[in-house]
User: Fold these one by one.
Assistant:
Number 1:
Amino acid sequence: MEIGFIGLGNMGAPMARNLAAAGHRVTGFDVSGAAVEGVAKAASAAEAATGREAVITMLPSGAILGSVYAEIVPAAAPGTLMLDCSTVDVASARDAATAATSAGLEPVDAPVSGGTGGASAGTLTFMAGGSEAGFARAVPLFEVMGARSVHCGGPGAGQAAKICNNMVLGISMIGVCEAFALAGKLGLDAAALYEVISTSSGQCWSVTTYCPVPGVGPESPADRDYRPGFAAELMLKDLGLAREAAAASDAATPLGTHAAELYDAFVAGGGRGQDFSAMLPWLAKQGRDG
Ligand code: NAD
């Protein structure tokens, strides 16, 4: 396929490289001037979008997605598959889809989970929103860049699924960190608690796959001085998106709101650049009054 790829950052660069390595002709653009092995360089987003069968975006925010779509929607040929893999707010995703549909393009929002490791290895999970036909056209690209894709519904449904999943993750990681911090103060061995929780009703991904205690459970960022992994500020971004979506739809998400407040305090208090599981040492050094 002839593919335009806009946003060649930590995630976009390895995704574009994998598409090129699989034999697709990829033309990329990033405002930073980033170049990627096997990917031709365009001089603008509009040039990257012109004459392609698919245009993929991997950008930091909904506002940037909107400004990029203002340039690329008029440039893209009718029928082009417009695949946005950025994590953005549901409203921006729906606006981008409406603009693309009005211009006769085929939009699919498809945010990912799996992080930079998954992007490099081509093992991402895609959560997609759009028409059946759009999803079917995107699947061969998902199969190159990822290991799994789920069609969640119409425009914006991919973003909705992503922020709901990450709200669970943020809340569950804080719960797990609180339990291990409490265990430490009670003199309970962390490895013993891991054995119990990982086989009992408290079992969840934050314990069994990503245990925040160094030296306990499978290898995780805790074993690498909490280098990300999934950076705390990205978790804060996703919890902010969940909070916005909850406010816009009048949904009660009290723990999601509290999780966002805690990640906000953690990021502001030195957590920026650390893995989101470094919530554990941050909590462990506090008493009940902070
Ligand atoms: P990043 O900041 O490394 O990359 C974003 C890129 O977009 C940058 O290279 C930037 O120069 C480029 N950019 C900004 N404005 C642009 C414009 N107007 N035109 C062209 N390029 C522009 O971020 P990332 O880690 O690659 O994340 C990208 C998206 O994926 C984000 O929405 C993020 O939330 C999401 N995401 C990231 C991870 C992760 O672990 N890094 C995991 C899942 C999802």
Number 2:
Amino acid sequence: MRPITKHILAAGVAAAALMGVNAASAQEVIKFAHVVAPNTPKGQGAEFFKKRAEEILGDKVKIEIYPNSQLFDDDKVLPAILRGDVQFGAPSLAKFGKWTKKLQVYDLPFLFKDMDAVSCFQNGEKGQELLNSMSGKGLTGVGYWHNGLKQLSANKPLRAPEDAAGLKFRIQSSDVIAAQFEAIDAVPQKMAFSETYSALQTGVVDGQENTWSNIYSKKFFEVQDYITESNHGLLDYMVVTSTKWWDGLDPEIRAGLTQAMNEASDYANGLSANLTAEQRQAVIDSGETEILSVSADDFAKWQTAMKPVWDEFSGDIGQDIIDAAAACN
Ligand code: LMR
């Protein structure tokens, strides 16, 4: 082989390695990073995606899953996707505020009465349009995955909104969620998911809001004396990738990944209700925390106290989007 050809080949292999492609087999190495444990709807959805993509596409792809914030916290994963350091992430819908204001709809308190209403909106016209709401920023949404409705927890019983006044709550990086806590005179503190357990344990914050699955799998219940079953908001995910990388894929690979992703979305969304019920029960059975159910009167008080947040964000989100979501109840 002439040296020049050798050099060109070596440069090609190096470039391919940088791009995550193994030149010897032309295998596409695809990284999927997320922040939760494997025994959660998102963790299971990611594993299912890997299994199906590798079954459908064989050696053409290798999917690597990095759970538990091993690679990136959610605020770092979207820039990492744009750089090509990782190909898929699935941040909670609360974490896209810097990229689009429209997805803030999902954080409005008491917007969805149950997960069927969430599915109705996500599968409907407006929900599907929102998958493309970041195309101008180079990100494409390829699916929604459920986690579930959020519960409030603290080291004192939160029965009515006034019980939360003055308490510090760890929140996801969402201005809507910050406004929601300010509406009940509490103090929101944005913080990475990976730091939440120790912030609760050391008393840096007094409480937090999350789904049963996250409260169970990250053991927040061990460091919170009370959980109020408030179901006051949603925590779901958008699986995202780089538009440039996705559009540049070999069409056969893109088709296989699309099929695997659609199947994984169905799988994760079908699993979340059972996992939520199981993990809620496991928290109750642990005996480590007291579960407070919310009477109809108190539920109305929480709703009234938090609802003004809707008006504050309707301009940014778009009233048409809010109306379409509310119509699913
Ligand atoms: C959180 O930060 O509480 C959640 O977004 C974590 C997750 O991915 O479910």
Number 3:
Amino acid sequence: MELHELTIHELNDLLKKKEVSAVEVTNSYLKRINEVEPKVDALICETADFAIKKAEEADKMIRDGNINDLTGIPVVIKDNMCTENIRTTCASKMLEDFIPPYNATVVENLNSLGAVMVGKANLDEFAMGSSTENSAFKTTKNPWDLERVPGGSSGGSAASVAADECAFSLGSDTGGSIRQPASLCGVVGMKPTYGLVSRYGLVAFASSLDQIGPITKDVTDCAIVLNAITGHDPKDSTSVDNVRKSDYKEFLKDEIKGMKIGYAKEFFRQGLDEGVKKSIENALKTFEELGAEIREISLKYMDYALAAYYIVASAEASSNLARYDGIRYGHAAEKYEDLIDMYMVSRSEGFGKEVKRRIMLGTYALSSGYYDAYYNKALKVRTLIKQDYEKAFQDVDVIVGPTSPTVAFKIGERVEDPLAMYLADVYTVPVNIAGLPGLSLPCGLSEGLPVGLQIVGKHFDEGTILNAAYAFEKACNFTAKPSFKGGAK
Ligand code: GLN
């Protein structure tokens, strides 16, 4: 086995025993990036020189006896998280030349543990999309089939893990952007409870929904990365300080006898692929064989979640993106007539189609004549969805179902049809609306492509999700690997 094929915990064993050095590990990944990146296009920028320097520092930490779980481990960061002195573009022309003067808190966390950043990942512009086709720079390809999308918006993060370009990556999830690409690329992705991970330095999309989380090769690694990035941050006022910082590795037990697992009858809706449905039904059987108790629950407002999400998220985006006015930072127009024209031209040139669509939608929903009809109504639906979950969680410990209604779709298939694209998030969006934690892990193949199982838990109960996911992962034993087929360029 090559070093770049290993998980974080396997690499950590070798580093601890001093069988390999951090520089050797990093070189193996940099070589892999050179080999597969021309096919996959997962990265907006590669940070090879920076990575070698960091790997040397990691080797010093190891020599000094300061090794921890992430020392010397190669990571890719989604390009909407600020990295000091390293370009952070949000896959937008608006920020094409933006070099942040500071690190996001999560980046700072990883740096202090000695993780080695090898690149920044492609995404849909400002994290708006489900396929990475909205990136202003390139479309990432799915390593399982290069003619298909990797999902989005953290498509580069998920594809880079699936293609072994890094041992793990960070993504952000506003309506499914960690879980859906993880599902389509056959890797593990987790959106933590809102408030568990600091958003400081994450370029804001929809502030009441955004959350950063890990994308990894297995559930153990997910727990390891979660340990590294959770915790109170005074720089983010929505970061919670009253939850115990658990060691998430303690939850990695294969015993789930008596665990109460809910599935919602609303999951089996129109638009769910037959193959995905079969895999989910098999997963439920596996949980039953493991001694869990399966209970039917109802999430009766689920059908309204997408509509509510696209109003709330767009409303917040229209406000958050107002700062890109061509004056303070970001793209500035060269030719304009007066101040208003300068704003207009800068924004027209800097933003792509989908971002403009959301700004218009959000501005409309917030405008005085329509505020009650749209924005306030969406907030009411948000409350009803939260209550759906609260009720369900009186009866069950976790809820399982599909992450995405389909496997990876073809590049170009949905990009001209925003509503079809938005449907990719039908199972993930309600979880953000309720602020709950959710994880996606592979549970089988359909049409030769990975299917993701979503496990949703109570607020701050990431531990139970990890327990269920770990037990399932062992029982399911998903070993298929991407084939990089198709996609002649
Ligand atoms: N696909 C969803 C959207 O376009 C979710 C994006 C995300 O989670 N960042 O809004």
Number 4:
Amino acid sequence: MSKSSYDIALLPGDGIGPEVVDAAVTILDAAAAAYGFSLSYTSYDAGATLYQSTGVSISAATMEAIGSADAILLGAAGLPSVRKPDGTEIAPQIDIREHYGLFASLRPARLFPGVPTRVQAEHIDMLVIRETTEGLFAGRHDPLEPSDDAVSDRLTITRATSERLFTLAFEQATLRKATQGTPGRVTLLDKANVLRSNAFLRKIFDEIAAKYPDIASDHLYIDAGSMMLVTNPERFDVVVSENVFGDITSEIAAGVVGGLGVAPSGDVSLEHGVFQPCHGSAPDIAGQGNANPVATILSGAMLLDWIADRHDDTTCRTAAAAVRDAVASVLAQGPKTPDLGGTASTSEVTHAVAEALSTSRVRA
Ligand code: ATP
């Protein structure tokens, strides 16, 4: 049921994380004011800076508290200079994924007019869905058998997770077709010709596809599919894959539509959603005031869509579309940050998006 106010948990994190989260909050507030709902925010510490002072990257209390918010907005967590004793980086976003069973990562890749791309394509608008809890990550916590001769990683596909994943993919294709006029097609990328686990994955995909006669479906082997993402990205609508194939696929898709500065994402289960830019904390540009806020602002639009779905709230859905349109007009006309060839600051771009949002509302 729709509400007049929604609670958002903020995890600004490290590096440019707080800068881009501030920008997204400015736009979310502008959207809420224009469309007549309200958002309240609670900010929590998580990441490498917290780890340096406390020895934990996210406290147990924060982990619990964020679960009761309507949605979570994360900036970026981790710094290359801050490492755990085993040499790995701080990544509370992976802990949150595991804690709340966020089994799918949604990564839209849309080419906005005005954004430079190295591929030859006019119209790219796809949604890559990556499974995030099993596949080639399934054995991440398996005991390591000490050996200098051979080490294995386990690839596991379960029916339960695959059915949820593919149902989500077909539901997303249906929603995109209805609300954005996309063609309505789901493509599975796999290695079913070699890996038994992937032959099983494909079988489950076909079972779920049969329940959605209005949505087209097809499969490509991951190698050929990866090439086509670069040579013919226009052919894709919703793309779905197991964990590691999906990880790589989503970065290729982000690359063809202009890079990390414009790539949003959402890690979701049926109950919880964490929205964040695909980029990391970018310590090389932190504090300079010129990080591109677009990826986080678009993640904020995904957050509004998520709330709209869960609460059947058409106002939030309209506001999400308005945020995307405002971003599109700013990317087309400028101002733009240096990663897109411009000279503008984070706040100049943010204010331009807010201005475009309020102008479009007045016109509507
Ligand atoms: P992680 O492993 O945490 O995802 P990463 O190693 O992929 O991080 P990023 O922090 O994402 O690295 O940065 C990669 C490059 O992209 C850096 O040069 C960084 O400055 C640039 N970059 C990332 N995000 C942005 C942004 N929002 N605006 C401008 N440049 C960015």
